[in-house]
Amino acid sequence: MYFTLQSYSWINKSLATNQGLIENSKSVKFSFYIPILLTLSFVSQLIYGGTTYAVIVGISNYEQFTPTSGDLRYSDRDAIYFRDYLTSPRGGNIPASQVILLTNNRASKDMIIKALSIFKKAAKEDRVIFYFSGHGNRGIFLPYDTDGAHPVLTYPELKKAFRESNATNKICITDACKGGFMKMKSYSDQTSATTPDDQLHTNSNVLVFLSCLPQQVSVEYRDLGQGVFTYFLLKALKGEADTDHDNTVTAYELYKYVSENVKDFSLQHHPETDPQTPMMYGKFDKDMPIAYVN
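Structure (tokenized):
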């Protein structure tokens, strides 16, 4: 599922802006409406019968970076929006005590590692979710207190937290540059996508959803007031990905909706660059329910 990085060089979203490649921006409120009789639950208790434990990290203002040399604009807001979704009626009303939100100076390496221990509380019928929005590079995420090289949150450290959880359903979502380096095998239109390293527990469903390919930056855009990936991720979870109108958003529907919209947005706004291309992989069935409309 993950592999160890040999060096800790890094790239940030604003770097591409300075080179004229992207619009550096990540919070506007959604004007998205669904019929009042429908309630959407993100992998809700109605589907799995258990509860959810989530660690949500978003870092815009880094301790040793500045607004012109490394800081981001909307990563913290993306994390807040994702937390708000999970704890809302449409997101399953997950108790606030089971959702840890770490933004900016609360998202140091030590605090993230400590927060991940909440996954140990999960029983077999539960699910755990890790969401990260901020700087990333080959094999690492950058916490608030990094200098770009140290400290860093490594994929093996995240993998360890997943492995130590008894939850059957494990979900990792990242909106970070070069996220594709987490990949061992990318998702395609197959029944499932697996690698030996993905099997954190024999009976676990492990889904990893990354905002971009290994060589790409993950774009945040001023007109959206968000990261492009997280913007379409939330729209998908709120129901727009339910293309067959069966009241369920499956893993494949989520992947298809987010991937197509992120790539289309990239081509429309920056046709001179390769379109940002999200990736999904792991050990799961493509029809695994991700969101449910009741």
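The chain is about 25% helix and 20% strand. The longest strand covers residues 127-134.
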